[in-house]
Specification:
Blueprint lengths: L2 E2 L5 H16 L5 H24 L12 H4 L3 H15 L5 H6 L9 H12 L1 E2 L5 H16 L13 H11 L7 E3 L6 H14 L4 H10 L1 E5 L2 H13 L9 E3 L11 E6 L6 E7 L11 E3 L7 E3 H12 E12 L1 H4 L3 H12 E8 L12 E8 L10 E6 L15 H11 L20 E5 H5 L25 H27 L1
Parallel strand pairs: 1-2, 3-4, 3-6, 4-5, 6-10, 7-8, 11-13
Antiparallel strand pairs: 7-9, 10-12, 11-12, 13-14
Helix pairs in contact: 1-7, 2-6, 2-11, 4-6, 7-11, 8-9, 8-15, 12-14
Length: 496
């Protein structure tokens, strides 16, 4: 008889599934590959349960469904599983998105048989959506902790996601987009926020939230399938996949959204160069024309800032995580900052502590702005900055980022009425982390540099409190890479 899981033993199921991954590691199956195989098999198992228990009409060809696997063993199982993955990846829609370019990474048929038996022994569709989501996200977080695999690039710390969603306050009827969605953290948190704050929803609101509100892009196939499955387990999505697999920068958006929440990949160089109709840019692989961009650059982060603005409807709101170089880089960076401050209301900047991502030494910020109609006068009046980085010691394992770390920022943001904000910094109290700068003050800064800080860094005065040497080394490498990148762009400009 199959067991029914409850919220109390969700973590137990995560551990059980993860312990089996350790067995597969001996056969060279990485954490990421293991979570992918779980994605395929869990989807098939839940589809089977919905058919049997809820009268659901499956869209999966019976010769490739869950029951086609459970009776096989040995080489026959391995051959059929390989064929199943290939066939389900054909076409378009939710199922092909999950199985796109899927491959069997479990080369030992006995171990594949054991994993199928483990999944068969549980009932999954009877679980509360929150429990299913908790189980899957628990696996995704463990996967992100596998630093060597690079999986952490897809995982934004949950406290940061929840703080950003909490101040952005999505509402029923909103459309929301993440153009670099990774495993779907922002999309799921926004969906949950609406459920938590506006229930009970009308039937029309429920349908909109489930099938029309959430949209994402992800260029990496493996991350996209994890995102689709993650959303599916949280009850998000209709007949079509809410996630588009592809490069969101490649073309002008066809649709515009009320909210854009995103943490684009931190790599600066794009495989393509972005060019405007009138501009030029050094060709790397192929050129992509974006007439809706302000300027040409091969810096992927700067292009994402321009793309986020293009995705917003008029009066739409955005929160985007950006590395420090977006705030101070010259050339295209300065042009974009000037345009952004003039054409949008750039109202908030959160300086994030180092040590919160799975790549050491990353210096990042959350930038908040609203798109506005064309105007001769600048829309930005004041930029409020919260410095959560200076004198803030955060590490992934010993001292991870928590909701408590972000509580003061959430309070200072004052989402209920941003025009009633009050600074915590003053000339008399120089330790406050929250203060504002006027548009004129920002424009007077060299290259409109928004990398602004004012707190006294105590670590510079006490050598015993210096950060870990690995973190310092990573920060030095990051700064050198940024400087070299600027130097290359200067040389490229001279060659044109």
């Amino acid at each position: 008889m199959m067991k029914t899981m409850t919220t109390t033993n969700a973590s137990t199921i995560v551990q059980r599934l993860w312990n089996y991954c350790n067995v597969l590691r001996d056969d060279g199956v990485s954490y990421g590959d293991y979570v992918e195989q779980l994605t395929y098999l869990l989807f098939l198992k839940m589809d089977d349960e919905r058919v049997k228990e809820q009268g659901y009409e499956s869209r999966i060809d019976p010769q490739y469904n869950w029951q086609s696997l459970v009776t096989l063993d040995g080489g026959a199982l391995e051959d059929h599983y390989r064929t199943l993955l290939a066939e389900l990846g054909k076409g378009s829609g939710l199922i092909p998105t999950i199985f796109r370019k899927a491959q069997n990474r479990i080369q030992d048929p006995a171990k594949l048989r054991r994993l199928i038996t483990l999944i068969e022994g549980e009932r999954w569709t009877g679980l509360n959506i929150d429990v299913k989501g908790e189980i899957y996200e628990g696996l995704l977080e463990k996967n992100a902790q596998d630093i060597k695999s690079g999986a952490g690039q897809y995982f934004t710390p949950r406290p940061l996601i929840e703080a950003i969603v909490g101040v952005m306050q999505p509402r029923p009827g909103d459309t929301l987009c993440d153009p670099a969605c990774g495993t779907g953290g922002f999309l799921i948190a926004a969906h949950q926020y609406v459920l938590d704050h506006y229930s009970p929803l009308t039937r029309a609101q429920q349908r909109h939230l489930k099938e029309k509100a959430i949209h994402g892009w992800e260029i990496v196939d493996s991350a996209a399938r994890l995102a689709v499955m993650n959303l599916y387990l949280h009850g998000i999505g209709g007949e079509e996949s809410p996630i588009t697999v592809g490069d969101s920068l490649a073309s002008e958006p066809k649709d515009h959204y009320k909210l854009v929440l995103t943490n684009p990949p931190f790599g600066k160089k794009s495989s393509d160069s972005i060019v405007t109709e009138s501009g030029n840019s050094k060709r790397e692989m192929k050129e992509i024309e974006r007439s809706d961009f302000w300027t040409s650059t091969s810096n992927k982060q700067l292009n994402f800032v321009q793309h986020v603005r293009a995705l917003l409807e008029i009066h739409g709101r955005a929160a985007v995580v950006v590395p420090d170089n977006v705030l101070f880089e010259g050339g295209a960076g300065e042009t974009i900052r000037r345009k952004l401050l003039h054409e949008c209301d750039v109202h908030t900047l959160l300086r994030l502590p180092t040590g919160i991502f799975y790549a050491q030494g990353v210096k990042a910020n959350a930038l908040f702005f609203d798109r506005k109609p064309a105007s001769e006068t600048p829309w930005t009046k004041q930029l409020w900055i919260y410095d959560l980085r200076t004198n803030k010691n955060v590490t992934l394992k010993k001292n991870p980022l928590t909701a408590a770390d972000l509580a003061e920022f959430v309070s200072c943001y004052h989402a209920e009425n941003r025009y009633e904000r009050k600074a915590t910094w003053s000339a008399d109290d120089s330790q406050g982390r929250w203060r504002s700068f006027t548009y004129n003050e920002l424009m007077a800064r060299d290259k409109v540099n928004l990398d602004i800080f004012w707190l006294r860094d105590e670590s510079l005065e006490d050598s015993e409190d210096l950060p870990d040497p690995d973190v310092l080394a990573a920060e030095i490498v990051e700064d050198l890479a940024a400087a070299l990148e600027q130097f290359r762009e200067i040389l490229a400009d001279l060659e044109r």
